[in-house]
From TrEMBL:
InterPro entries: Homeodomain-like_sf (IPR009057), HTH-type_Tx_Regulator (IPR050624), HTH_TetR (IPR001647), Tet_transcr_reg_TetR-rel_C_sf (IPR036271). Signal peptide: none annotated. Coiled coil: none annotated. Keywords: DNA-binding. This is HTH tetR-type domain-containing protein. SUPFAM superfamilies: Homeodomain-like, Tetracyclin repressor-like, C-terminal domain. Residues 27-46 bind DNA. One of its GO terms (molecular function) is DNA binding. The keyword DNA-binding applies.
């Protein structure tokens, strides 16, 4: 198998095992066996299981559909913004509270930001924000990259709230209300 094919295999297999057994109940050895690779091969891609969580979060944005930033399909730049962020949030929440809690724990333990997102998603989202500002669909005139960072931080806060409440709160509606307020969407 080619090297570039192994990272998705390792990540997808480990995510499946984490969902089935729980993060704490899966060992690197089990991941290696399920992928039919050796531990040294695994360690070329991830030093720890926590590194897999970082790769997972990085890839979430890729799970949104390809039309999220097309105003012809979504109907407006504001709808593109909502669709992109809600797709991201939906992907994150789909992994359940146990797995998502591990991402937060690993983020604290590692003392580094494991909440990094694919730069392509960030730049596409900043472009959508810029166009929504230019069209008057959102009134907040903060630099698009800064507004994106504020929105992502708000979303991560809602994810933490959801985890702490063991998934029993509807964060999507609350997040959408906050997104609308942050962007200053005209009535």
């Amino acid at each position: 198998m080619k090297r570039r094919d192994l990272e998705p295999l390792i990540l997808d297999t480990s995510l499946q095992l984490f969902r089935e057994k729980g993060y704490d109940n899966v060992s690197v050895r089990e991941i290696c066996e399920a992928c039919d690779i050796t531990k040294p091969t695994f360690y070329k891609y991830a030093v720890t299981k926590g590194d897999l969580l970082e790769l997972f979060f990085y890839r979430i944005a890729g799970n949104t559909d390809d039309t999220w930033d097309d105003p012809q399909i979504q109907g407006s730049w504001w709808n593109c913004l909502k669709h992109g962020f809600c797709g991201f949030l939906t992907s994150f929440l789909s992994f359940g509270t146990d797995f998502c809690m591990q991402l937060f724990i690993q983020n604290v333990l590692s003392e580094q930001d494991r909440f990094r997102v694919d730069p392509d998603f960030r730049s596409r989202m900043a472009a959508v924000i810029r166009k929504a500002q230019a069209s008057g669909e959102i009134l907040d005139d903060t630099e698009p990259e800064q507004l994106y960072d504020v929105i992502m931080s708000t979303m991560i806060g809602f994810c933490a709230w959801w985890i702490l409440n063991e998934g029993s709160v509807d964060v999507m509606d609350e997040f959408l209300d906050s997104l609308q307020a942050l962007c200053e969407v005209p009535a």
